[in-house]
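Limitations

Structures in this collection are predictions, not experimental determinations, and the ligand pose is part of the prediction. Treat each record accordingly. The example that follows, with NDP as the small molecule, is included so readers can see exactly what is and is not provided: the inputs are given verbatim, and the output is the predicted complex.
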Amino acid sequence: MAAQLLDGKGIAKQIRDEIKIDVAEFVEKSGVTPCLAAVLVGDDPASQVYVRNKERACEVAGITSQLHRLSADTSETDLLALIEQLNGDPAVHGILVQLPLPSHITETKILDAVHPLKDVDSFHAENVGLVVQGRPRFLPCTPHGVVQILHRCGIEISGKHAVVVGRSEIVGKPLANMLLQRGSNLGPSAANATVTVCHSRTANLPEITRQADILIAAIGQAKFITADMIKPGATVIDVGINRTDDGLVGDVDFDAALEVAGAITPVPGGVGPLTIAMLLWNTLAAARMQAT
Ligand code: NDP
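Predicted complex:
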């Protein structure tokens, strides 16, 4: 039997509609319009598309956005000066530095320069620490999107074995941390998993992925997770976005997985749309924190 399709696009739309209402209420009460400043260094085509999509999503939600474009040869000092300026600007509530940055710039130095209260990506060391301790200020956008999909599709996380393939700072590691917490913003059923994290040096990977009730692929390799790596009936969340000759594909061999999994996210239309929705969520949260 074919797996249930988890409609990330629909869920993202639902969340964006909710945020739009919340933003309007916040503006009415506080007289403050939330504002997201995006910083784009260089002319990477994918980054330009992401930033444009984020700007459009802000506009629809009633959030003001700024785009600060810097050339690829911008120095670290100049980038830090811009971030300092945005940190001190009371009209800016959230700051997003689009990654990847050019190789002459140290990413962690830049991300740690963003004021923690404006760090809507939740990449600052202080915010990462708060997530790990289970008292998040901002939830990282893509991992939060994954949890929202599971929760809104009625898939219990508590007590399940979640296997996360990928240990990046942006997806794998923070997601694993969120899944194993005692609670979440969506209640204890959206946390309390038994979590296994796998990576490129994991031995016997298929043996481990086959034990997953919830299998999350955040690897960056097209169709890496094959049907024989999935336990029948498991929920499969595909975070991967890979550009191939056949168009965008995920990290999961979707057509084959559909026959084994109980539920699965498509690519595109799965996790991707949630990332922007959760960025809007954090921008509103940042504006609320700074207004009090
Ligand atoms: P990274 O490249 O930072 O991390 C990839 C992870 O996968 C690493 O931990 C790596 O292990 C692991 N890995 C690589 N090869 C293997 C292998 N053969 N077996 C097991 N593990 C392996 O990627 P990101 O986490 O940033 O992104 C992952 C994917 O998700 C990409 O396709 C990206 O485009 C997509 N993405 C999607 C988003 C969305 O909005 N939907 C947002 C962010 C990312 P090791 O640490 O050992 O190198």
